[in-house]
Structures
1.
Amino acid sequence: MDPAASLTVDELAARAGVTVRTIRFYSTRGLLPPPEIGPRRVGRYGPGHLSRLALIEELQHQGMTLAAIERYLRQLPPDLSPEGLALHRALVASWAPDTEAEATREKLERRAGRPLTEDDLDRLAAMNVLARTDDPDVFRIDPVILHLGVRLLEVPVSLKTLLAAREVVLEHSREAARELSRMFKEEVWDPYRRRESDPEQVETMRTLSAHMQPMIVQALVTAFQRSMREELKASFPDEG
């Protein structure tokens, strides 16, 4: 039995923020793989099930029907890792405006599957997973990365390192966004506006620019993945 498959269906439901009935329904439709069967014939679920539920939730937020979600999931590799599923969710979420939700500390701990210390909350805040409010027991959370943030709490990285990493990511992502926006404006938008005065056509170009966002995000993520893989391979050659 996979040692990572340690959640009962009730625990999975609590971590994912859905009902047990929903999990049963998704399972019958083939949206979730079957659980590992443990002692006493009790089904056990793992990170892959949790990541898949998060992806299904995001696809629903995008307005996709159940049939469309089934088609989307069928196109994914059957052995896609929890991290790969999380990446797909992040890409899907880039299609929509930023969203925030409020959660109590009790709800956060239910999703995390354990109590959260003040240090845990500081680390989640450093990762932009949550922000504190005037009420010490209520937080603004980013549902897209909440699951990943909770998993990163188990990684032995100091808060100082997390804050430094955050600054590196922000600095370079802002620079990339600034340069790409400049290129699009100078090479596409400005020449088009000089040639086209029809407001309807201008609105069409504006819509096109919005649709480019997910394509650019996917290109950036793919490039970053490859670069990271090369850096890790160079730094840890014996790790394969």
2.
Amino acid sequence: MQSKAPISDIDAFIETSYRCATKSDVNLNELVVYSSGKVLAEDVAKVLCSDDIISKQYGTVTSYWGYKTSDTIEFLGKGIADIILAKENLINAFMAESTYNYQAVVGFPNYTAYLISSTEKPRVEKSYFLDKRIGLLDYPTSRSGHILPKQLFKKLDINLEKLKHCLCQLSF
């Protein structure tokens, strides 16, 4: 009978975190960060690891990421992260300010979405969209890829029932 290798010997096939050491070699505290996306999570961790003030309080920074709202909910609902990038409606739903003492540190009062065409400059009028193929993200909480375009189409009196959604993965 062949023995199985311990799980710790198996390389992870799905990465969900990035860890770096701060300038402190004596501090054992860990700063836990959560955001939606690998690139953002790694960039934030690198900035925090090189920060002098963070180094006074933490020895490591571990930055986790997820791509789905359910990933954010898991971190938010359990209060796992010290810093979390989450939508305001989720913060309010979990009463995270009173439950885990999360406090808003940055926000975006205005949010802009752009219509993009591969062949011409889009016009914001109903007649322009009538014979066009329009792609929306199949992600109902995406402001730029779902909510704002649908609001525009409603304002232009375009039948939303005829819109088709796509499962698109954006990479930056």
